[in-house]
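Below is a concrete protein record.
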Amino acid sequence: MKKIFLNIKKYWFYFTSFAVFVLGFLFFRKKTSSLVDQISEINERHSKEIERINEIRLKERELLKKNEEILRKTLAEITVKYEEAQRELTKKKKEEIEKIVKEYGSDPDELAIQLSNVTGFKIVYPERNFNHEE
């Protein structure tokens, strides 16, 4: 017994450290869950993430459809307005051309110049050859 007491007295630090380690392990350890529980939890989280991704995709598709519809309506409105503006412009040009023809009908050169200004066409004068060989 004396030998045991002397050994404990000599190596008390090791015995105490071991005892503290064992008690700490017993008191502070976590409850370990089984591998099956962990896998099922991971699968649940994964399925929730997939559901959220699918919901977001559906929202994106709906937004895309709405935007395409708005684009189509806007393009249709613009096309109608453009066609109306073209008709108006054509009417105005016709009225201006009629007015010019009435004013300058007797003078072909001035008529050509005025029509060129209104329509944007270039005047191409014919080549005049004064050296006629007859």
